[in-house]
Amino acid sequence: MLIARLIAETEECETRLDALAGALVEAGAELASVGMPKTDDGMLELRFAKGDPVAVLAAIDAVFQPADMLVARGAIMVPRLFVSDMDSTMIGQECIDELADYAGLKPQIAAITERAMQGELDFEAALRERVALLDGSEESAIHACLADRITATPGAKVLVATLAALGTRTVLVTGGFHHFADPVAEMLGFHRVVGNRLDVDGGKLTGGLVGPITDSAVKAAVLHDELAQLGEGARSLAIGDGANDIPMIEAAQYGFAYRAKPKARAAANGRIDAGDLTAVLRLLGVPRNEWRDA
């Protein structure tokens, strides 16, 4: 059975349900039931006897956007694995752009970042180009950037802490850098970190990277490898916002796009466009009395 969950105010649901019903008919979806889960009276749950997930998402989008939603086959439950992007997902910034500001290069580097996240540039080439521009920057600027610029996305700490408390393995996998990701993971409570390493010599960045690149393929591979260790039937959750997150999002049973670029959003069966990251917990059916503070 196909299940769709949508977070919306009750009054809003009532005024738009007729329009949604019409859009679903046009999408060829056969609606079996409509209700509100016992865990959340601000959420609408639709069950379909038949329907295409992409078409159902498009129908919901047409009526309710911006909204927070999830469309999945079978019972929706807490996943055994959670893999997440970092920049503009678990934190509210793009680390390399903020670091570039200390070198007076933010406009140039941010423009490359935006095009890479939109999927307009090759990720590795764009990453190496931006890192090369930071040649000679002081390593101490990273520590200042972490202290002064980097903040957790609203709901991130509660999301990670709650999933961990429920037995979920949590992995932060980023196309960014361990210099940032390690302290961010510690702050948020992730079990593992995968990312890129900046080359540093004499307290200054060399403009290079050390070791293999963490790109979109590595992100998806991390999800597959971690999931294999959890055994048959384990479910996975992935969250990201950019083009390099697409393979990871597509590989997860619950692939969420958080305030995402269009290509990443189109690849996801879960979308957070209105609320904060605790919306993921709501859509998974985790009662508020089970939420945990970090």
Report what the structure shows:
With 294 residues, the protein is α/β, with parallel strands linked by helices. It has two domains: 1-76, Alpha-Beta Plaits; 77-93 and 152-294, HAD superfamily/HAD-like (Rossmann fold, 3-Layer(aba) Sandwich). Helix content is 42%, strand content 23%. It is built from twelve helices and eleven strands. It has helices at 10-26, 53-64, 95-102, 106-117, 123-133, 140-148, 156-165, 178-188, 216-229, 246-251, 262-267, 278-284; strands at residues 2-7, 30-35, 43-50, 68-73, 81-84, 169-177, 192-201, 204-210, 236-240, 254-258, 270-272. An eleven-stranded mixed β-sheet has the order 2-3-1-4-11-10-9-5-6-7-8, sandwiched between helices. β9, α10 (246-251) and β10 form a beta-alpha-beta unit. α1 crosses α2. The protein is elongated and about 65 Å long. It starts with a strand and ends in a 10-residue tail after the last helix.
> What's the alpha carbon Rg, rounded to whole Å?
20 Å
In the CATH scheme, the class of the largest domain would be Alpha Beta
- What share of residues are in beta strands? 15-25%
Going by CATH, the architecture of the largest domain would be: 3-Layer(aba) Sandwich
Entry keywords:
294 residues; alpha/beta; Alpha-Beta Plaits; Rossmann fold; 2 domains; 11 strands; elongated
Task: Please write out the topology.
Elements: E1 2-7, H1 10-26, E2 30-35, E3 43-50, H2 53-64, E4 68-73, E5 81-84, H3 95-102, H4 106-117, H5 123-133, H6 140-148, H7 156-165, E6 169-177, H8 178-188, E7 192-201, E8 204-210, H9 216-229, E9 236-240, H10 246-251, E10 254-258, H11 262-267, E11 270-272, H12 278-284
Parallel strand pairs: 5-6, 5-9, 6-7, 9-10, 10-11
Antiparallel strand pairs: 1-3, 1-4, 2-3, 4-11, 7-8
